[in-house]
Amino acid sequence: MTLAQFSSVIMDMDGVIWRGDTFLPGALEWFDWLRNHQVPFVLATNNSSKTPQDYVSKLTKMEVSGIEPWQIITSGTTTADTLKRRYAPGTPIHVLGGDGLRAVVTDAGFVVADDAMVVVVGLDPQLTYQKLKTATLLLRRGADYIASNVDRTLPTLEGLTPGAGSIVAALSAASDREPEIMGKPYPAMYETALSRLGTQARETLMIGDRLDTDIAGAYALGMQTVLVLSGVATRDDVNTSRLQPTVVFEDLAGLVQSLGHR
Ligand SMILES: [Mg+2]
Predict the structure, then answer these.
(1) 123 lies in the same domain as 191
(2) How far is the CA of 43 from the centre of ligand 1 (A)?
(3) Cα separation, 253 vs 59, whole angstroms
(4) What range defines the domain where residue 135 resides?
(5) Of 181, 214, 234, which residue constitutes the final position of a domain?
(6) Residue 46 CA to ligand 1 centre (angstroms)
(7) Inside any domain, residue 212
(8) Residue 89 covered by a domain
(9) Residue 10 in 3-state DSSP?
(10) Do 205 and 170 fall into the same domain?
(11) How, if at all, do strands 18-19 and 22-23 pair?
(12) Which residues are catalytic?
């Protein structure tokens, strides 16, 4: 398969453009390609622990300038957009999550509170039994239940550590409830991205390193997909997967090379 024309791009960050604080091969060339061809793009991550401004600052420090906060979509900002559509400003929201998630909920005009009829869950590196208990009791009283994402693990230098999905699993077990999920592969984040880009799914390209999230969600909405093997998915994963991306490259350098003639 080869890629057809596309008029905008959504791309994941970890495992696609960088790992930790190091750009992966082709990342800078890819940003240049997008600029030279005036293709609008957004960066979309399931990680809710950092704010869009944090990512803009990190990119600027790494010498990629000109990225604006609207171009950064996290499962946290998607959660905030959903909250804004549903609840009046000032509504109390209970957050079981990190500082980034708390910040986007507050910035969206809500009041983070212990007692609330909406519970928002993300990765909380300071998780305690008491926090699980508080959220459980709210859910058992019928509070709305929204999860920023359900990635069970988080790749770190030490290995795979518990992700937001592991905390959601504990809370779901304790409350006998299932959350509405904002992150990839569920549609909310892609829909936010498409509305910011102003393009339709079929003319939009999704680039990711995970088949089960990045690629699965984009495929379901009818986007063209690029899987890069510079992150989580391996060639073996592709060979044994029923879900096939439109194209597969080792990294973004391969993508830039394939598009070079356009
Ligand atoms: Mg990734």
Answers:
(1) no
(2) 11
(3) 18
(4) 95-181
(5) 181
(6) 8
(7) yes
(8) no
(9) strand
(10) no
(11) antiparallel
(12) 12, 14
Q: Please check whether residues 130 and 197 belong to one and the same domain.
A: no
Helix (H/G/I), strand (E/B), else coil: 32: helix
d(CA 141, ligand 1 centre) in Å: 36
**Is the Cα torsion angle 113, 115, 120, 125 positive or negative in sign?**
positive
Domain for residue 73, yes or no? no
CA distance 233 to 214: 11
| Cα 19 to ligand 1 centre (Å) | 9
Number of separate domains in the chain:
2
Give residue 202's pLDDT band: very low, low, confident or very high (50, 70, 90).
very high
Please give the pLDDT value at position 261.
59
One domain for residues 189 and 175: no
Same-domain status, 99 and 161:
yes
Lowest mean pLDDT among 56-65, 156-165, 168-177: 156-165
In the structure, what pLDDT confidence band is assigned to residue 262 with cuts at 50, 70 and 90? low
pLDDT digits over 8-61, tens only?
999 999 999 998 889 999 999 999 999 999 999 999 999 887 889 999 999 999
- Specify the pTM: 0.88
Radius of gyration of the chain (CA): 18
Residue 226 C-alpha to ligand 1 middle, in angstroms? Answer: 12
CA 12 to ligand 1 center in whole angstroms: 5
Percent of the chain residues past pLDDT 70, beyond the cut: 99
